[in-house]
Design a protein that fits this description.
The protein is of the alpha/beta class and about 220 residues long. The protein has 8 helices and 8 strands. The chain has a single domain, classed as Aldolase class I (TIM Barrel), CATH 3.20.20. The protein binds D-xylitol-5-phosphate and zinc ion. Zinc ion (ZN) binds next to strand 2.
């Protein structure tokens, strides 16, 4: 999985038509998606349930796109090996969910996949600063995790900016990803603030023309 310094778009499968997953994935792949964002929810860390490693391995068999796996679960260290085995290329867990962050990052990397940390809207950027050197990605949530189709929280913008400063100040290649409520308008705000990877569910999968949706997000 390439983490070269370009702006990437990761459509979130959560907004797809799950009765037609094969075509939905093909549609965004053809449209030029860079990664596929997979939202894993356990009904404990967030009040919603989605899917687990079994479905991820089915998705793996449908696409060569890098699988960007966003774990919104209470025990990421326990389940990470199963997602790696299922074909996830990047595993992102929530800092609010774990006791030992350093150990969780080490365990994920030990599986041969990239490691990311996510923070909820109310968690300050400071919570990830001690780990930047060992992370491939930081995911800043711009909605409360749990559901697609919510409204972008502008409080995410200054968080992106201060994370950008910290990463550039230390000369790191850690990517900044933003997730929740991204449309062409909010994409511009987060891009100007210095984001590297944009997650977009509703604005890509609910569009009649995903290629046009992607180019609007990149514009
Ligand atoms: C929310 C998920 C997001 C969500 C984004 O918990 O992490 O990835 O699917 O959906 P939109 O783009 O519709 O806000
Ligand atoms: Zn997500």
């Amino acid at each position: 999985m390439s983490l070269a310094r370009t702006r990437l778009i990761a459509p979130s499968l959560l907004a797809a038509d799950f009765a037609d997953l094969r075509n939905e994935i093909f549609r965004v792949e053809k449209a030029g998606a860079d990664w596929l964002h997979l939202d894993v929810m356990d009904g404990h860390f967030v009040p919603n349930l989605t899917f687990g490693p079994f479905i991820v391995s089915a998705i793996r068999s449908l696409t060569p796109l890098p699988l960007d796996t966003h774990l919104m679960i209470t025990d990421p260290a326990f389940y990470a090996p199963r997602f790696a085995e299922a074909g996830s290329n990047l595993i992102t867990f929530h800092v609010e969910a774990v006791q030992d962050v350093v150990r969780t990052i080490r365990e994920i990397k030990g599986l041969g996949v990239k490691a990311g940390i996510s923070i909820k809207p109310a968690t300050p950027v400071d919570a990830v600063l001690p780990y930047l050197e060992s992370l491939d990605l930081v995911l800043l949530m711009s909605v409360e995790p749990g559901f697609g189709g919510q409204k972008f929280m502008p409080e995410a913008v200054p968080k992106i900016r201060s994370l950008r400063e910290a990463i550039d100040g230390r000369n790191l290649t850690t990517k900044i990803q933003v997730d929740g409520g991204i449309n062409p308008e909010t994409a511009k705000l987060v891009r100007d603030a210095g984001v590297d990877v944009i997650v977009a569910g509703t604005s890509v999968f609910r569009s009649k023309d995903p290629a046009a949706a992607l180019s609007q997000l990149r514009a």
